[in-house]
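Run: sequence + magnesium ion -> complex structure.
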Amino acid sequence: MLEKITNTFSDVIRKLSGKSAISEKNIEETVERIKLALLDADVNVRVVRRFVNSTIEEAKGEKVLRAVDPGQQFIKIIADKIAAMLGDKKQDLQLKGPDTQSVILFAGLQGAGKTTAAAKLALRLKRGGRNPLLAACDLVRPAAVEQLCVLGEKTGVPVYREEAKDAAAAAKGALAYARKNGNDVVIIDTAGRLQIDAGMMGEIGRIKAAAPPDEILLVADAMTGQNAVDIAKAFDEQLGLTGVILTKFDSDARGGAALSLKSITGKPILFIGTGEKLEDLEPFHPDRIASRILGMGDVVSLVEKAQETISVEAAQKLQKKMATNQFTLQDMLEQIRQVKKMGSLQSLVEMMPVLAGQVREQDFDPAEMAREEAIILSMTDKERANYLIIGPSRRKRVALGSGTSVAEVHRLIRQFEKTRLTMKKMTKNKKMQAQFMRQFKPS
Ligand SMILES: Nc1nc2c(ncn2[C@@H]2O[C@H](COP(=O)(O)OP(=O)(O)OP(=O)(O)O)[C@@H](O)[C@H]2O)c(=O)[nH]1
Ligand SMILES: [Mg+2]
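>> structure
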C-alpha cells in the first residue's frame, strides 16, 4: 500500500527533521524532490503544480525561516498540504435515520470491484446495526446475480433478485421488498462495461430514476491512477456522484488516484478497499493516510486496531507491571497471544513505517511465536512467576516438554530478560518515554 511514494517522502522527512536552519534553497530543493515523486506517482499535473506553488509560498514565509524548529514547521506544512490533496476531512455516508429507507447506488467500470464493495459495505452497515438489503441489478453479465448471492450468503445479508431482465424494474422491486421486510438500506449493484458508453450510463440513469438514491458511489480501481480520475469525472457529469470508493488500494504502490481525485472532481473518497476479504473496506481518513505517506505512521489506526484486540484493562495492568518491575513470563505469554491476534507484522509496519528496519520480521514469525508459546506453556506456574528459578535441569525439562531445544529455551529467557530491562529503563526514564512518543508525532 503506497510503498513507493512513502519511501520518497519518509526520506525527505528524515532529512528535514534534524535541521536547525532552513534556507530558501533547502525549501526549493525539497519541494522539487516531492514534485518529482508526485508526478512519478501519477498525480494530476495541475494538482502537483498547485502543491508546489502553495508550499513554497507558505514555507518561505516568516514561520519556517525564523522558526525555532524550522524542520518541524516545514514538515507540518507539507503534511497539511498532502492531507488537503487527499480531501482534508473524513466524509461519512449520508444516510437517513434507521427507520427510513436509504438507497445507495453503485456504479463503475467492469472489474472495478462494485459487487465486492457492495457486499463489503453491506457487512459494515450490518455490523453497525443497520438492516441492509443487496439488490442484484447487474443483469448483463450472466454470473453476476449468482456472485452477489454467494456474497450475500457469506455476509448474512439478504439479496433481492428478479428473473426478468430489466435492471430499473429490479431496483424498484428491491425497494418495495425492503419496505415490506424492514430493510433500512438498499444497496444496488449494477452492471459495468469495459469503457464508458451510452448503454451503461442510460441504464444507470434509469435505475436512478426508478430508485432515487441517497448516495451514488463510483467504484474505481486505485491502480488505474489518472484513469480512475477521468472515469470519475465522466460519471459525475452524467450521473451526479456523491462519492467514490477506491478499490485495490492494497495493491496501489503509487497513490496517484487518491491524491488527485478530490481536487479534480470535488468528490470525496468515502472508503478504500484494502483486500479481497469481506472485512477489507476501511473508511478513508485523509489525515491518517497523509501521515502514512509521510512515513510518520498511522498511529490512530494502529491504536484502534490494538484496541480491537487488547482490552483497556489488560493494557493498564501491563503498564502497572512494567512500572513495578513485575513483568513475568506469564505476561510475556499473553503478549505473544495478543500480537498473534493483531495480525501480521506486515500490516503493522505499513501503518508505522518508522518501525520498518527497527523490528525484525522473525520477531513476528508465526512459527517462532508458536515455539515461544509452547516453551512458556511447558513451564510450571511457579517458573512463569519467577524466571530466576529456571536452572539447567528445569531448562532441559522445558525443552523436552515443548519439543524444542535447550538453546531455544535459553534464547527465550534471554529475550525475556532483555524485554524486562528495556521496560524498566523506559518507565524510569522520562526523557526516553518522551523520545519514544515523539517518533510518532510530527510536532
Ligand atoms: N486486492 C483487492 N482485490 C479486490 C478489491 N476489490 C475487489 N477486488 C477483486 O477484484 C475483482 C473484481 O471484483 P468485482 O467485485 O467482481 O468487480 P465488479 O466491478 O463487480 O465487476 P463487473 O461486475 O464484472 O463489472 C475480484 O476478483 C475481487 O476479488 C480490493 O479492494 N483489493
Ligand atoms: Mg459486479
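>> summary
The chain has a mean pLDDT of 86. Residues 406-428 form the longest helix (23 residues).
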